[in-house]
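[job 4471] stage=fold_predict status=RUNNING
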Amino acid sequence: MEELTTDDAPDSIGPFSQGIATGDRIYVSGQGPVDPETGEVVPGTPGEQTRRTLENVEAVLQAGGASLDDVVKSTVFVKDMRYYDEVNEVYGTLMSPPYPARSAVEVVKLPVDIDVEIEVVAER
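[job 4471] inference complete, writing structure tokens
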């Protein structure tokens, strides 16, 4: 098992890794719309937050030698399903066919005050 870390994604806010590689699989912990340089949440619409979130996911994937094109499964957590279409629109522009398997779940609260969090599994 190999821990993946990068300064191009936000630091973990608890006892977990940004990502873990094991064999050909990469597991990226839930990422949100946090600027890795400042540690601050990027303001904006749920779509804008989705873009920053996926940029953070990709930074961790790149630390493991992969990219968003290698994602096989993702889980999207949103604070309100009213954001689903907006999140989907941005997600669809950054992910490529064949799209990964995916779950989308509405949650009451996330560890930081954000509208979206995304975790992925990729194959390198």
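[job 4471] summary: The mean pLDDT is 96.
[job 4471] exit 0
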